[in-house]
TrEMBL record:
<protein>
    <recommendedName>
        <fullName>Peptidase C14 caspase domain-containing protein</fullName>
    </recommendedName>
</protein>
<dbReference type="InterPro" id="IPR029030">
    <property type="entry name" value="Caspase-like_dom_sf"/>
</dbReference>
<dbReference type="GO" id="GO:0005737">
    <property type="term" value="C:cytoplasm"/>
</dbReference>
<comment type="similarity">
    <text>Belongs to the peptidase C14B family.</text>
</comment>
<dbReference type="GO" id="GO:0004197">
    <property type="term" value="F:cysteine-type endopeptidase activity"/>
</dbReference>
<dbReference type="InterPro" id="IPR050452">
    <property type="entry name" value="Metacaspase"/>
</dbReference>
<dbReference type="GO" id="GO:0006508">
    <property type="term" value="P:proteolysis"/>
</dbReference>
<dbReference type="Pfam" id="PF00656">
    <property type="entry name" value="Peptidase_C14"/>
</dbReference>
<dbReference type="InterPro" id="IPR011600">
    <property type="entry name" value="Pept_C14_caspase"/>
</dbReference>
<feature type="domain" description="Peptidase C14 caspase">
    <location>
        <begin position="43"/>
        <end position="361"/>
    </location>
</feature>
Length: 380
């Protein structure tokens, strides 16, 4: 069966895929020429991740399809060269699984290679960490996404990468996971919890894309017990002490992670974690663009295959984003327009308790998604 978006009519106008660059406050002939040169030299790069967690209690259905559909979209409609798009999935045949180490290595490679004017995309489809179980608990300790090896990537890890970007480049995160609103530190809320959209509850057979602290701890404990049984990697006593450190809290999870993965863990779990020691700073609101599948206190839906999705499973947010882009008659959608339209599509799917959000500066909210701009020179 053909992919669902192949049935949608594409606009017939001519477009090009010029990269998004910063506009000078005062337009001059020389500045325009410089901007034109930058547009021809800039590149678009992407890291796309789909984690279905097969053969586990955390199994999802639509995440790999999300990542593959996003790859097809950005190559065919947004001018990405397939050589600059890295796809990581946990399919059995995949040669590069989306572990924390592989994801962070791919992101670092993309960021280090970036030049002024480049457009970067990180799309993650999978579980988010549900670490604030009780709304009366103290504020959470940061948002996180969960790779296939259950070694979380926190907002502080992404923030450290964003700080390495050269001026004039852009970094967009599209996260289709639970509790994803907040993955970029200090980003300004453009479309968020204050918006009020309501609808009916999703069907009961829909899964959510979130792993609780308790579930994560249990899974890591099982992995640790396997290691103890085989005694191949670590001393039994060290693993036993890690298991006994905590139950379902962040301290116990951090102890298990560092024992199993060593230093290949989030900055949050490294010894003496402090921003000053690690030379970290809070990001400014114009650093990074986050399109999140839901608010920080909400769950994202993993939709099973159905007629409405062309017989394939997808994440509700990724499906809606791709559908909006495919059906749009505009030469370009701004980040704000895309999120608003995606919210409306999710409502049409009968999912009223998931509200996609946008976090970025005012300028980036009005900028074209992934720098996709209409060809004004041809009058299109």
């Amino acid at each position: 069966m053909a992919c669902w978006w192949h049935t949608l009519a594409l606009p017939t106008f001519s477009i090009d895929f010029r990269c998004l660059v910063q506009r000078p406050k005062h337009k001059t002939r020389q500045a325009t020429q410089n901007r034109s040169k930058m547009a021809t030299k800039c590149k678009k790069r992407a890291v796309l991740v789909g984690c279905n967690y097969p053969n586990t209690i955390n199994k999802l259905s639509g995440c790999v399809n999300d990542a593959k559909a996003m790859r097809e979209m950005i190559v065919s409609r947004f001018g990405f060269d397939s050589e600059n798009v890295e796809l990581l999935t946990d399919e059995p045949e995949s040669t590069c699984k989306p572990t924390r180490a592989n994801i962070m290595a791919a992101l670092k490679k993309m960021v280090v290679a970036a030049k002024e004017g480049d457009v970067l995309l990180f799309h993650f489809s999978g579980h988010g960490l549900v670490h604030r179980i009780d709304p009366h608990q103290p504020p959470n300790e940061g948002e996180a996404i969960v790779p296939c090896d259950l070694n979380p990537i926190f907002d502080v890890d992404l923030g450290q990468l964003i700080q390495l970007l050269p001026s004039g480049s852009s970094f967009t995160i599209v996260s289709d996971s639970c509790h994803s609103g907040g993955l970029i530190d200090k980003s300004k809320e453009q479309i968020g919890p204050h918006s009020t959209l309501r609808g009916i509850a999703p069907p009961v057979d829909y899964k959510t894309r979130g792993i609780s602290l308790a579930t994560l701890f249990q899974c890591l404990q099982t992995a640790a017990n396997v290691i103890i049984a085989t005694q191949d990697l670590f001393p039994t006593r060290a693993l036993g002490n890690a298991i006994n450190t905590g139950t379902d809290n962040m301290t116990g999870i951090g102890s298990l992670l560092t024992t199993i993965f060593g230093n290949n863990v989030s900055l949050k779990f490294l010894p003496h974690y402090e921003r000053d020691i690690l030379n970290l700073r809070s990001l400014t609101e114009d650093e990074g663009i986050l399109l999140s599948g839901c608010q920080a206190n909400e769950l994202s839906i993993d939709m099973p295959a159905s007629e409405k999705t062309g017989g394939k499973a997808f994440g509700a947010f990724t499906y809606s984003v791709l559908k909006v882009i495919k059906e749009s008659e505009l030469g370009a959608l701004t980040n704000r327009q895309l999120v608003v339209k995606a919210r409306n599509e999710i409502i049409k799917l009968g999912i009223g308790q998931q509200h996609p959000c946008l976090y970025c500066s005012d300028e980036n909210a009005g900028a074209a998604f992934l720098g996709h701009q209409p060809n004004t020179t041809t009058g299109a």
